[in-house]
Amino acid sequence: MYTLAFDTTASGCAVTLFSDDTCIDVFNEEMEFGQAEKLIPVIDDMLKKHNIVFKNIELLIVCVGPGSFTGVRSSISAARAFGLACPQMEVLGINAFEAYIYSVIFNPQEIAQLNAVIIETKREDFYFQIFDEHLKPCSQPAAAMREDIINLLRHKKVTLLGDGVERFLSTPTGLSLHAILNTGRLNVKDLAACGIKKYHKKEHNYPKPLYLRAPDVCVKS
């Protein structure tokens, strides 16, 4: 089974191609703007490189956020369009919190009483979700200020992961930290592996955008 996964929700464009459970290609490029224009040519080049056409893709996985409004819309619009054009393809949406926490499964010694995914918003607040020692959600995805998140994590051993962790820890938190993991941008291979697992468990989530606050827009005077 061929699986294609991609993410344009953060500061970059990432695409990966799997054959069954094995990654056979990956593309990552840091970029603040232009992800939508980059995505389709990258996918086209990757499939041609491996002599694969879209009708060979059985599963498409897309990150549904949180992230930039434009980046989220770009990814989901592309995924839905591919799904309409290729009815044989299963299209699955995975949010960034699910993909980040999936990576911890392979590091059981790093799992704490509370495991918090902290995602950058590029504002004063952070996107976050907290998981228990079984990696089950014990909070809903949300956006909150740093002190409010710290208050939810006090008095427990905590593992932090996500691309917002570096800024989150830029000043002392007073938390009892067990581990700090994966503080970079979401690994698109984790996104793919998480989606493949959900697909085999028949947890088919059609991609819907995960917006945790209103977009930053203004009206020109």
Protein model, in words:
The chain has 221 residues and is α/β, with parallel strands linked by helices. The chain has two domains: 109 residues, 2-Layer Sandwich (Nucleotidyltransferase, domain 5); 85 residues, ATPase, nucleotide binding domain (Nucleotidyltransferase, domain 5). The chain is built from six helices and ten strands. A five-stranded mixed β-sheet has the order 3-2-1-4-5, sandwiched between helices. Helix 1 packs parallel to helix 2 and helix 3 crosses helix 6. The longest helix has 17 residues. The radius of gyration is 18 Å and the shape is globular. The N and C termini lie far apart (53 Å). The model has no long low-confidence stretch (mean pLDDT 93).
Record keyword descriptors for this entry:
about 220 residues, alpha/beta, Nucleotidyltransferase, domain 5, 2 domains, 5-stranded mixed beta sheet, 6 helices
Q: Compute the gyration radius: what is it?
A: 18 Å
Secondary structure tally: strands: 10
Number of helices: 6
The CATH class of the largest domain is Alpha Beta
Overall pLDDT level: 93
Shape field: globular
Summarize the structure.
With 221 residues, the chain is an alpha/beta fold.
Layout: helices, strands, pairs:
Blueprint lengths: L1 E6 L4 E8 L2 E9 L4 H15 L7 E7 L5 H17 L4 E5 L1 H7 L11 E7 L5 E6 L10 E3 L1 H8 L3 E5 L3 H4 L7 E6 L6 H13 L21
Helix pairs in contact: 1-2, 3-6
